[in-house]
Amino acid sequence: MIRKLSIFTVAALAIFAVACKPQPQGESAPPAATQEAAAPAMPTTTGVTDTEIKIGSWAPLTGPAASYAIVAKAQQAYINSINDAGGIHGRMLKLELRDDAYQPAKTVAAVKELVEKEQVFAFAAGIGTATGMAVKDYLDENQKVWVGPATGSSVWADPPSKYRFAVYPTYGTEATLLVEYAAKNFKKKKLAVFYQNDAFGEEGLKAVRATAARLGLEVLEEVSHEMTDTDLSSQALKVKSSGADTVVIWSTPKHAAMFVKSAAKIKYKPQYFTTSTLTDPVMFQLAGDAWNKVISADWMPLPTDETEGVAEFKAAMEKYAPGIPLGNFTMVAFVLTEPLIEGLRRAGRDLTTEKLVDAMDSLDKWSGKYAHEVSFGPGKRQGTDQVFFVQAQDGKLVRLTDWRSTMAAGDEATEAAPAAE
After folding, report:
1. 334 and 73 in contact (C-beta within 8 Å)?
2. Which ranges of 115-226 would DSSP assign to H, the alpha helix?
3. Euclidean distance between CA atoms 63 and 18, whole angstroms
4. From CA 228, how far away is CA 206, in angstroms rounded?
5. Which of 32, 65, 312, 380 is the most exposed, having the fewest neighbouring CB atoms within 10 Å of its CB?
6. How far apart are CA 120 and CA 47, in angstroms?
């Protein structure tokens, strides 16, 4: 009896309280749905406030790969230019950048800080294959969207991850097309490979091997280097002794320059073909005349292109990063970050991770001011796989070909002729 009375008493008090609540004169209280429509509650999304969106990234600002530090400076310049134009749906972008010195252990520490302490919303760029591999699973587990890893490794898209969107063409595509170009346009048959002894270098090496075997070419020598190497004369001599007339280079700038300079000292002048990671005017500074006539894969606008995007790129760099040489190392930051900017715009003001994923999946052969024909979708995470070729000629990069994803018979007749060897 006492328990029943208590329940009755509580219910009665609740009814009494509702009945006594004052109502506006001349109208009844609006239903709950109407109240919510009048004052919508913004979702609570980590890294997103009413005025700001936090974006995370990492780069080797110090260490043996510090030549790539200008990528980070260019990324900040691009973010600043977006904010100058009003941001994204009224929110400013804040780039949280960390130096990992190109060391995977430091990348792990930096990314954990960005996720757990800084609580960034998403990531853009992030330089390095081994460094990215060290954190990709952690980012997936924490449901952090990562757009445009600054590396062409195939692991970003295969197997696909819901939260990871690769923009950089794969190193496999680059190496395959370079070897095909060497064979079909230059009639080269004796190859050697100089590569970095890590996941980045090995991916290029494997594609060179596979393509050479398919085309009936010989890979006479495979020579690697470590990031800590300071003398590459023995590697250069070994490659020269192999009799190779063509060398494919899969390395970071410092060691690529060291290798071609070491080869030049012993009067070894093969035709070099390189990954896009070496397609930048800084190579002329590092390698001097030894870099002349090198042919590289490329997949982004050249600073000499006369387009609206290149003009805006130059203006942003002049305003926010003056004095930095303009080239692929700066342009790549714009190309890799731009799809994220488009995704944020498409996701709308009511921003969540799921809405950003859906927005990224809606990109279908989308070209921005910098990025070229980017396509994603459920289960498709390699946004583009097209490249063209450029050649270093007297301190400038000259475009040799149009875009391609495969070599086709007859292409040679429509392409600009490379400089004579």
Report:
1. no
2. 129-133, 136-141, 171-186, 199-215
3. 68
4. 23
5. 32
6. 5
Q: Tokens standing for 192?
A: 């050697």
Q: Is the pTM of this model over 0.70?
A: yes
Q: What is the DSSP pairing of strand 190-196 with strand 246-250?
A: parallel
In eight-state DSSP terms, residue 154 is: G
Residue among 152, 229, 214 nearest 383 (CA): 152
> pLDDT tens digits, the chain, 421 residues: what are they?
434 444 434 344 443 343 444 444 433 334 433 333 333 444 468 999 999 999 999 999 999 899 899 999 999 999 999 999 999 999 999 999 999 999 999 999 999 999 999 999 999 999 999 999 999 999 999 999 999 999 999 999 999 999 999 999 999 999 999 999 999 999 999 999 999 999 999 999 999 999 999 999 999 999 999 999 999 999 999 999 999 999 999 999 999 999 999 999 999 999 999 999 999 888 999 999 999 999 999 999 998 899 999 999 999 999 999 999 899 999 999 999 999 999 999 999 999 999 999 999 999 999 999 999 999 999 999 999 999 999 999 989 999 999 998 544 334 433 544 554 4
